[in-house]
Amino acid sequence: MKDTIKNKRDIRRLTEQMLLVVVVEDKQLLATFASRCCLREFPSYYRYYLACRPRYTGSSNLYVATSSRVSLLTLSSVETRWVERRSHGRDDLSPPSSLNGYSADSCDAKKKKGPTPRQQEELCLVCGDRASGYHYNALTCEGCKGFFRRSITKNAVYQCKYGNNCEIDMYMRRKCQECRLKKCLAVGMRPECVVPENQCVIKRKEKKAQKVGEKDKPNSTTMNGSPGNLNIDQMGVKIEPTETECLTMPGSTIGLSSSWPNDVKAPSPEQEELISSLVFFQGEFEHPNEEEIKKITYHPTESEDPSDLRFRHITEITILTVQLIVEFAKRLTGFDKLLREDQIALLKACSSEVMMLRMARKYDVETDSIVFANNQPYTRESYSLAGMGETVEDLLRFCRHMYNMKVNNAEYALLTAIVIFSDRPNLLEAWKVEQIQEVYLNALKAYVDNRRRPNSTMIFAKLLSVLTELRTLGNQNSEMCFSLKLKNKKLPPFLAEIWDVMP
């Protein structure tokens, strides 16, 4: 969306709602522009997405600016583009509200009276993924934390194959370890903060000694004779505690910064089998059985008001949905490779996000509602009546967005697996989760390239942006749970435990 800028009032109006993407051809002009506004360079995956459009072809630098101090003279000297902050279902891909750990609205912000606004989600300074906290003196994600620790403890020496100047982001971080390590050091990660390997071994032995009495094994069932009887090792992927450039399988590559040939290969036989397995189990664990549905009561008791009844309906159907998500996750290829602690951590963290994906699959565009297995349509009025109206607008907007993208069953299943194997806090073997997720990312890339031509590049980027939206919806769900607690609407124990809502 191009916008005409006539005066400073227009600039202030637009900067409140949008981010300004600036295409700068001249390095001298860039310096002038940078001195007049708060300038942040786009992560490469956004740059690639915008570069897909005809007007952005070439080697121009793309930057995001947020400042009302930009002079009109400067703006008239560069090509500009306003991109909406939130674009649910629109063509434009919204950039995040903070880039590389810096809030886009933080520049030249004056302190105002009143309550402190909630901070935006912080991003890893190394790769731009969601940060989990300060690790080794820098704000990073779990993946970069683990990579840095392994690199230092093993005294690893890497070699860049791409010219020693790679731009590290969420998808390039796996391809070049040398530049990733350089970026870790550049953002302030300190090797002296890493605990020596011998101390780690001692700690691991102590933890193992505490679990000697435990006899329960990870409950990750594999069904013989079903499409799920697929071993991840058979796919040519060997999971090791070392950084690999990329877990590639024949006919697939991952990374938005690469250029793909016009003659796109079909998914490999292993990928086709993996996708078939996902679609099969997605169907198997999509609907509760009739007996479980009959247990949901539809008539209020004498002392129960309509609000409590609707709240009870939604929580009961949510419990059934989450239980199905857990069963689906157990059947995923690679899930049984993980420690029990990591399995539990992933299931607890992903359940609300996967639930949003399932809701999008059950979305009815004609009634603008979500139709669950009990064939009851849940509209915005239903959620509002249950005291859950705070998040329903964003949820329905997300459902419409997925509907407009025409996401099919295979793409939903792959996205679900990618969400389940996402980087989460407190994982003991984050590197293993990351490598398993790479298999599903590669499969999605190969599938989209083969099915969505000629716009596969743009659609793949949009599908990946869904992961960010799901994180936001998941966070909103957590906030809503605490809000319900304040309204004396108590969640059932199962949901309270899996979503960490303290009693």
TrEMBL record:
The record's subcellular location field reads: Nucleus
- Where the record annotates domain NR LBD, the positions are 270-503
Keyword terms of this UniProt record: DNA-binding, Metal-binding, Nucleus, Receptor, Transcription, Transcription regulation, Zinc, Zinc-finger
Composition skew (Polar residues), residue ranges: 219-232
Q: What is its main location?
A: nucleus
Show where the Nuclear receptor domain sits.
121-196
The GO annotation for biological process reads: cell differentiation; ecdysone receptor signaling pathway; negative regulation of transcription by RNA polymerase II; positive regulation of transcription by RNA polymerase II
Q: Does the keyword DNA-binding apply?
A: yes
SUPFAM superfamilies xrefs: Glucocorticoid receptor-like (DNA-binding domain), Nuclear receptor ligand-binding domain
Tell me which family the UniProt entry assigns to this protein: Belongs to the nuclear hormone receptor family. NR1 subfamily.
Give the protein's recorded name.
Answer: Ecdysone receptor
- Please give the organism: Cotesia glomerata (Lepidopteran parasitic wasp)
Highest lineage ranks of the organism?
Eukaryota, Metazoa, Ecdysozoa, Arthropoda, Hexapoda
